[in-house]
Write a structure and sequence with these properties.
Blueprint lengths: L1 H21 L2 E10 L8 E9 L2 E7 L15 E14 L1 E6 L9 H7 L2 H17 L2 E6 L7 H10 L7 E4 L19 H9 L9 H14 L4 E4 L18 H13 L4 E5 L2 H10 L3 E4 L5 H10 L2 E3 L2 H12 L7 H10 L3 H10 L3 E2 L15 H8 L4 H7 L2 H7 L16 E4 L15 E4 L2 E4 L1
Parallel strand pairs: 1-4, 5-6, 6-7, 8-9, 9-10, 10-11, 11-12
Antiparallel strand pairs: 1-2, 2-3, 4-13, 13-14, 14-15
Length: about 450
């Protein structure tokens, strides 16, 4: 009898938990103008219905009837009236560095800040990014620690406000190349950075394969490599190709065999072309691409992430009388930065697929939308610029089934602005309403 009563009690408790689990969370957004599918015309007076963070229906507001929602007593429902606003999908920034931000103390912070400090800094930057309307980001290199993975998981669990994060972990780089990060430090300090075992530096096919596999083991969502030298590495090693062909191929093959996309930091033409020939999925920056590079982009179907805001930012810092850049950094900033607008113009005119990305961390987090104005300056229409940060951004991440548009089955990520960004791209500099997976973060 005691056993029977115990089983009955457990069954009642289980039924209680089951009932709680079935409670629904419903969000309804009434939009004056709704760009549910960037690339198509916006719709007037439409509503988006979101259940458990996922879009279940988009319909004319006139057809909306709360009684049709099939609401149970335990369900919660929120209705947001944005009938005087322009609503569109949450924005996607395909190139950020959330756990850092360029500043005069940056090199000192490298040896002063712990991984926990980096995570806390990243939490601040993540919140600013989300408040700017960017509900998804791709973080493309965050040192050798685990801060970015902790930040990614914390935002996914709802512990802290921030965008959805796709993280690469440590950047795959040659020793002494852009991404190594130890240039200019004493040998014992440089050795300390690499002794953690999480470094992405590699030399030769075998170690490059191991470096990729190590990032996958640590939880990387994608792989980032530095195919060429870079602007802000503290070395006068130029901005051309740094990996050998067999090393590049080993990185691509290893990452793809483990189900990871690969993106390559690349400024110089030879490095751009080598990465594209090896099968890279996207190129970051692309400063010196030419007509042959454009043909390779189109043949490979690879994306370009232009990061025009980073180019403008480093020029502004380099030209300042109080510039804190080292001599190699300053020289490369003044050489590379001014080239980037025309690069994006050549790529756009040549039919290269472009995905939005800012390199925030070079520029300040939260200012991500400034990239839109620069893309338009480079010849894109406002509609194309918005498309690059929604539909194209989702495709670049391999997440078109969940992101980029407001359609049934996709995440309930949306923002609202006061004005039509297809007519004036600058309205995206002031996002007034931010929702991620049906949860309101800014109103």
């Amino acid at each position: 009898m005691k056993l029977a009563r115990l089983i009955l009690a457990l069954a009642v408790v289980a039924m209680g938990f089951a009932g709680a689990a079935q409670a629904d969370s419903i969000t309804v957004v009434h939009a004056g103008q709704l760009l549910d599918k960037p690339g198509e015309p916006p719709k007037s007076d439409h509503s988006v219905i979101i259940r458990h963070g996922v879009v279940t229906e988009v319909l004319p507001t006139a057809n909306f009837n709360e009684a049709d929602l099939d609401i149970d007593p335990d369900d919660t429902i929120e209705i947001h009236n944005l009938k005087d606003k322009f609503v569109l999908p949450g924005l996607i920034d395909g190139h950020v560095h959330l756990t850092s931000e360029l500043n005069p103390q940056g090199r000192l912070q490298t040896v002063q800040m712990s991984d926990a400090d980096r995570a806390m800094m990243g939490a601040l930057h993540a919140r600013r990014t989300l408040m700017a309307g960017f509900t998804t980001v791709r973080d493309v290199g965050a040192g050798t620690g685990d801060a970015i993975f902790a930040l990614r998981d914390a935002t996914a669990r709802g512990w802290i406000p921030g965008p959805r994060i796709f993280a690469s972990g440590a950047t795959i780089s040659v020793t002494g190349g852009h991404g190594d990060g130890t240039q200019g430090y004493r040998d014992d300090i440089a050795h300390m950075f690499k002794a953690s075992g999480n470094s992405g530096t590699c030399d030769g096919v075998e170690t490059c394969r191991r470096a990729v596999r190590e990032q996958v083991r640590r939880g990387a969502d994608h792989i980032k490599l530095t195919a060429t030298g870079g602007v802000l590495s503290n070395t006068a090693a130029g901005t051309e190709v740094q990996f050998f062909e067999d090393e590049l191929q080993a990185i691509m093959d290893t990452a793809h065999s483990m189900g990871r996309k690969v993106t390559a930091h690349a400024h110089g033409k030879n490095g751009i072309d080598a990465a594209l020939a090896a099968g890279v999925d996207s190129i970051e920056h692309g400063t010196y691409l030419d007509a042959e590079s454009v043909r390779l982009f189109r043949r490979a179907g690879a994306y370009l992430v232009p990061t025009l805001l980073a180019g403008q930012t480093v020029v502004e810092i380099a030209e300042s009388p109080n510039s804190f850049l080292t001599p190699p950094q300053r020289a490369k900033s003044l050489l590379v930065g001014p080239q980037m607008i025309e690069m994006a113009r050549r790529a756009h005119q040549g039919g290269v697929k472009i995905a939005f990305g800012t390199d925030s961390g070079v520029s300040q987090h939260g200012d991500n939308a400034r990239e839109f104005e620069l893309l338009v300056k480079a010849g894109m229409t406002a509609e194309e610029a918005v498309y690059s940060a929604t539909v194209a951004g989702a495709d670049n991440l391999g997440m078109s089934d969940k992101l980029g548009t407001l359609e049934t089955g996709k995440y309930g990520d949306l923002i609202a602005v006061d004005g039509n960004p297809l007519e004036d791209i600058a309205v995206l500099l002031n996002v007034e309403f931010v929702m991620k997976e049906g949860v309101l973060y800014k109103d």
